[in-house]
Amino acid sequence: MIVEDVRRAETARGWRLSAAVRTKAAPGVTRLYFTVRGGKPDWLPERGDAFLAALLMPAMSLGEELAVDAPVSRRLIRSARTVMEIYSTWWQQFRTIRVVAAETCAAVGGQDAVGLFFTTGVDCFYSLLKDGERRAEPGHQPVTDLLFANFEQHCGPDHDRLVARIGHVAARTGCRAVVVDTNLRFFTDPLAGWEAYHGAALGSVALGLQGLLGRCLIAASDQYRHLPPLGSHPVLDHLWSTECLEIVHDGAEATRTEKVERHLARAELALENLTVCWRGRPDRNCGVCEKCLRTMVAFELAGALHRCRTLPGPLDLDRLRTVAICSEDAQDAMRSMVREARARGRHDIADAAEAALRHQARRSGQGVR
Ligand SMILES: [Zn+2]
Q1: Between the CA of residue 7 and those of 49, 161, 316, what are the distances in Å?
Q2: Distance between Cα 366 and ligand 1 center (Å)
Q3: For site-directed labelling of 103, which of 5, 139, 247, 255 has its Cα 20 to 30 A away?
Q4: 277: CA distance to ligand 1 center in Å?
Q5: How many structural domains are present in the chain?
Q6: pTM (2 decimals)?
Q7: Are residues 62 and 93 in the same domain?
């Protein structure tokens, strides 16, 4: 896989960093791009770091050398070896490959801005609210930019409402909202599942914005007590850092329920703007999918479901009993929820969630762990 002609140019939507990508697996050349709406040109240095992060896993999937014809951070290219060791240990379809760059040098730039990837979901709201509480601590570098990466290439009124909601949260917390459009999944979806890949995707967007960011937080979805292989992970995310950009996996000290109890249940901003559901419209919670139900349980356990304006309550336990829980990650989260509900004396919720896990196990022909 060859990455060349790394170029920054102004488009109708904003400044764009792009590169031509060639692979033996498909004929022709396609450009991979990151476009920052309303951004400044110096936010996007003409470097190869973002493309290395974006294309490492796809190249490993194809077993092709990854050659980047642009300057790449020395630290990043060293870390790429460790990333490959982790990927190939966790997922056997990814083979270690050779990674070469036209030039390796220390990255430069990196301002004082601190980014946080923000979707208005539970994990990123927790990291934002926790950051707000820490602002008075000596040496703390507060979040300054809420980053939204439009990986799904959404557009239209629903997407606009979600972006407006992110802008509203940014304004209320003294931050700037930065929206990045990218066609990255066009390259990666055929070669790597999103659960395995999404950390690299976030890393690549942060690396694209290296002229803006000195530090960037990725909100954790799992917790230190239980860390199954996942594309965004405490052993992985920091490996996308360069000499001038520190990438941090944040918030793995708390479960989803603990995040709601500690911060979201007490914050009007979260209660008014929380959006967790990606099943239907991007700006709305459907209230019936596994992720919505799991979030509703967390708020119910925190005694705050009736106060959350964006989650359709009350909790319907019959619906919870039969909800499909397809991914391993979601099943892990549901098991954690069972323990938390029991610990809080809500055996009705724990029983319903266990029934859902049994139901899912029967559907997929497995036993319940
Ligand atoms: Zn939903």
Answers
A1: 13, 31, 52
A2: 25
A3: 247
A4: 4
A5: 2
A6: 0.95
A7: yes
